[in-house]
Write a structure and sequence with these properties.
The chain has 371 residues and is of the alpha/beta class. The protein has twelve helices and 14 strands. It is globular and about 70 Å long. The model has no long low-confidence stretch (mean pLDDT 97). The protein has a seven-stranded mixed β-sheet with strand order 1-9-8-5-4-2-3, with helices on both faces. A three-stranded antiparallel β-sheet has the order 7-6-12, with no helix packed on it. Strands 10-11 form a two-stranded antiparallel sheet.
């Protein structure tokens, strides 16, 4: 079986360092806060080229806290791409605001600035730029749109650790950014974990207070906050993995280039696009085909694991039926039946990569011939 993800193999490759880091946290009883969290926050902030990093319990908390810190009027509209995971949108609604779904770019699948511009109203207060699959959004267009309409920019970087727009790391371009360190991410913890990043000192302070019961001192609470903290064990694991991240991303780029070279001649398949201004980190390698469902079965029968990201576009989810966008003529509302994610990651060797391309080639050549 060619695995879609192999965290056990990743662990074995860095086992000595991981085990040592975990043992150090246990010996120091540094489970909540402390030097391991501080060290990772400093290292990740430097890696993402941003002034502040606040570790929190998970990526969804990171988004919710970031939105709360912006202090938008209750019921504000936030533009969110229709093609993303529900965490992006539920963070908006659970923070007391209203989601307005925007279509995706036909090539990068990230938020379409053109469609977003058409959906701005007097109640719009923010744009959520989700750097999907590891490809950054068109931040120049989004920044221009935000400036014209006086909007905040929230960067959802859950799939984009290390990604760059014109040489700038994502998360540091808008007002505030969030990261998930869910185990399957390019930089993943051994459980749930997340972070907020920003260059704004006041936003950083408020986020840290919200995540820690509205306080800076132990029993001095300036307002009601919540409990969302990155624990020492996860911080230590992430710090070890961070030192390997660039090498892992380089391997992902090698795989993506190999796929491009060996799959580009196949009919009835649309390969991922990388904009010339983008540094893609290939969290996912998403292809598109009208034969998606039979391809899924074919790959499964040939021992290749796959995924779909995402099988039901957010406007079509029951949770958002009240918005009435399920029948909008969005690309996202049709692409969800065509997209499939094939294996990519540092766990794949040359033989496995070749096997994926060979199997895809056999499928499309056979189905094109037979119609």
């Amino acid at each position: 079986m060619i695995k879609f993800l192999d965290l056990e193999k990743q662990y074995r490759s860095i086992k000595t360092d991981i085990d040592r880091a975990i043992q150090s946290v246990i010996q120091d009883s540094a489970f909540i806060g402390g030097t391991y969290v501080t060290k990772f926050e400093e290292h990740f902030a430097a890696y993402q080229q941003v002034r502040h990093c606040i570790g929190v319990a998970n990526g969804t908390d990171a988004l919710e806290i970031a939105i709360e810190a912006l202090a938008m009027p209750p019921g504000s509209e936030v533009l969110v791409p229709a093609n993303t995971f529900i965490a992006s949108s539920e963070a908006v609604t659970r923070s007391g605001h209203r989601v307005v779904f925007c279509d995706c770019d036909p090539r990068t699948y990230t938020l379409s600035p053109e469609d977003a511009a058409r959906r701005i109203t007097q109640r719009t207060r923010a744009i959520m730029a989700v750097h999907l699959y590891g490809h950054p959004c068109d931040m120049d267009a989004i920044l221009s749109l935000a400036r014209r309409s006086n909007l905040f920019i929230i960067e959802d970087c859950a799939q984009a650790h290390g990604a760059e727009f014109k040489g700038r790391r994502v998360g540091a371009i808008g007002d505030i950014g969030s990261f998930s360190f869910y185990p399957g991410k390019n930089l993943g913890a051994f459980g749930d974990a997340g972070a907020i990043v920003t260059n704004d000192d006041d936003l950083a302070k408020r986020c840290r207070m919200i995540a820690n019961h509205g306080r800076t001192l132990k029993y001095a609470h300036e307002f009601e906050g919540r409990n969302s903290r990155l624990d020492g064990l996860q911080a230590a694991v992430l710090d070890v993995k961070l030192s390997h991240l660039d090498a892992w991303l380089a391997h992902r780029r090698t795989i993506a280039a190999y796929y491009e070279q060996h799959l580009s001649n196949l009919a009835e398949i649309t390969l991922p696009y990388q904009a010339p201004w983008a540094k893609h980190v290939w969290h996912l390698y998403v292809i598109r085909t009208h034969k998606r469902d039979i391809l899924l079965t074919y790959l499964q029968n040939n021992h290749i694991q796959t995924g779909i990201h995402y099988p039901i576009a957010l406007p079509k989810q029951q949770a958002y039926a009240y918005l009435g966008q399920q029948n909008d003529p969005m690309l996202a509302n049709s692409y969800d039946a065509q997209i499939i994610s094939v294996p990519i990651g540092e766990h794949l060797d040359a033989d496995e990569i070749e096997s994926v391309t060979t199997t895809l080639g056999k499928f499309f050549n056979a189905t094109t011939t037979t119609g």
